[in-house]
């Protein structure tokens, strides 16, 4: 294993600034970046950003996905000494964007097109801060989001009061301003580079502080485990706004000299087939849900993927039927990885490619990371395994800066909130989130995940979650059906019989499964 890289993002990028090798390709945009071109665009945008009145240390929220300039914007913020944060642009409502901007105390926001209507983010911002319509560029003063002064829109066809366009920011750059950029060589490698919201699936999103060292070495460790190298391109079918994806894919060219390919801005790229074939990608980063869709379409269209040697699946256990599909349709794929992504370490610190464990486990801790299990007083027992809450150390050589607003803690451990089992070989199996645990009147934890697994084995079910709506209330199974034409009553009856025949139950004398709430995909 290589030694830790004690450097910063701009220093790492500048090491490759003279190279004419291709670093990144954004296929649907027909944009190809050599290392030299990418470095040049980074410094131009960095100088332009600081010319608007932003200062090193200011926070910038970047809302977008796999666009070329979304990628460049993150690197430019790092070069300018601005602290960046990445976010999905497809907000359900204005309140979510308001929460993100206010809680994060962002000075600037850069908005890329969402999958919804044109000018979607601009409309949300005007709803949150109507003062924007009458503000000078870079001088927004809003009661709702008092820290925000700069709004930058990447939709170049639309110009609005109070907002810069991204091309304007590029246009403000010149040699004098580039020469006055902060001296990155004087920076500490543990300097804060990014703050990122957690997923917020079981509790409100929290802001996590991440250093240059952690982003770079998280990439280094995962890239080495996967086997990324100069020969062979990596195709990314996951969104860059997830910080572990950005750290692995966005920094991989500078850490390993791997070429990275982004088929299209959408998280599930419809142009993936063409991109993989055109650039002979050897590695594919995706997840089980997205890959199922890709393989289904590929099978219908009789598309093959002979160049793919490695498939990297992030975020969940891998169903056995998906493994069979991969073997059939990726005939040269000799390695399948499954990994656990964690915002707090900005990478996949746990990973496996072991065929025997990949369907039930997310893997073992990679070298450079240490994991442990915290006892939660559970009655759940496993033979030759420990059960409890997963906690993990930040990448070796660093400490955890903690959660916002200050990011000034130096914590040795991160409590993830995920309940796991870890066997004697170090394999980790995810059971549930701590917030989702169901406890009966006697204080015993009900193993609802066992029932969820059993239900998901039924061929008409796409997904299932067992919940309880009130303390000590009845259990509810929320089901997602594969087809809307299913007979709901028949499915309910079949599942009850299926679980009974397979001797699967989470029932106790205090609880029974009262009814099923069937939701359609």
UniProtKB/TrEMBL annotation:
Pfam families in UniProt: AMP-binding (PF00501)
One GO process term, biological-process aspect: fatty acid metabolic process
Alphabetical list of InterPro entries matching this protein: AMP-binding_CS, AMP-dep_synth/lig_dom, ANL_N_sf
Domain AMP-dependent synthetase/ligase positions: 18-402
GO molecular function: medium-chain fatty acid-CoA ligase activity
Name of the molecule in the record: Acyl-CoA synthetase family member 2, mitochondrial
Gene expressing this chain: ACSF2
């Amino acid at each position: 294993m290589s030694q830790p890289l004690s450097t910063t993002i701009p220093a790492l990028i500048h090491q490759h600034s003279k190279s004419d090798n291709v670093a990144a390709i954004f296929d649907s945009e027909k944009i190809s970046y050599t290392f030299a071109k990418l470095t040049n665009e980074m410094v131009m945008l960095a100088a332009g950003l600081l010319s608007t009145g932003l200062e090193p240390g200011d926070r910038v929220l970047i809302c977008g996905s796999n666009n070329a300039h979304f990628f460049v914007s993150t690197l430019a913020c790092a070069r300018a000494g601005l602290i960046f944060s990445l976010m999905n642009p497809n907000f359900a409502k204005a309140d979510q964007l308001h929460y993100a901007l206010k809680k994060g105390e962002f000075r600037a926001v850069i908005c890329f097109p969402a999958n919804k209507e044109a000018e979607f983010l601009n409309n949300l911002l005007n709803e949150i801060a109507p003062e924007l319509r009458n503000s000078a560029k870079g001088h927004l003063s809003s009661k709702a989001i008092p820290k925000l002064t700069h709004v930058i829109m990447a939709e170049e066809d639309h110009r609005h009061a109070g907002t810069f366009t991204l091309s304007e920011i590029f246009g403000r750059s010149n040699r004098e301003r580039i020469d006055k950029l902060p001296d990155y060589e004087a920076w500490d490698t543990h300097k804060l580079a990014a703050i990122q919201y957690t997923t917020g699936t079981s509790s409100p999103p929290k802001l996590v502080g991440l250093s240059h060292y952690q982003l770079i070495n998280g990439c280094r460790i995962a890239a080495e485990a996967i086997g990324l190298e100069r020969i062979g391109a990596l195709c990314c079918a996951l969104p860059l706004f997830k910080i572990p994806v950005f750290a692995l894919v966005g920094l991989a060219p500078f850490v390993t000299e791997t070429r990275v390919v982004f088929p299209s801005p959408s998280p599930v790229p419809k142009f993936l087939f063409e991109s993989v074939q055109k650039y002979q990608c050897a590695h594919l980063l995706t997840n089980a849900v997205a890959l199922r869709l890709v393989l289904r379409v590929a099978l219908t269209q009789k598309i093959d993927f002979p160049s793919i040697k490695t498939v990297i699946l992030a975020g969940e256990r891998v169903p056995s039927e998906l493994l069979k599909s991969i073997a059939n349709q990726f005939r040269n794929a000799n390695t399948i990885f499954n990994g656990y992504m964690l915002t707090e370490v900005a990478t996949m610190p746990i990973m496996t490619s072991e065929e025997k464990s990949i369907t039930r486990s997310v893997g073992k801790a990679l070298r450079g990371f240490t994991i442990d299990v915290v006892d939660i007083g559970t009655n759940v027992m496993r033979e030759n395994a420990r059960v409890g809450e997963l906690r993990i150390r930040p990448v070796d050589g660093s400490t955890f800066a903690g959660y916002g607003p200050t990011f000034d803690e130096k914590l040795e451990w991160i409590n993830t909130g995920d309940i796991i089992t870890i066997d004697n070989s170090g394999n980790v199996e995810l059971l549930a989130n701590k917030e989702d645990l169901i406890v009966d009147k006697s204080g015993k934890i009900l193993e609802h995940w066992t029932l969820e697994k059993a239900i998901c084995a039924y061929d008409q079910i796409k997904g299932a979650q067992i919940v309880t709506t009130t303390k000590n209330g009845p259990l509810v199974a929320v089901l997602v059906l594969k087809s809307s034409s299913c007979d709901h009553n028949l499915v309910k009856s079949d599942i009850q019989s299926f679980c009974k025949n397979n001797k699967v139950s989470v029932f106790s004398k205090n609880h029974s499964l009262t009814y099923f709430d069937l939701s359609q995909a």
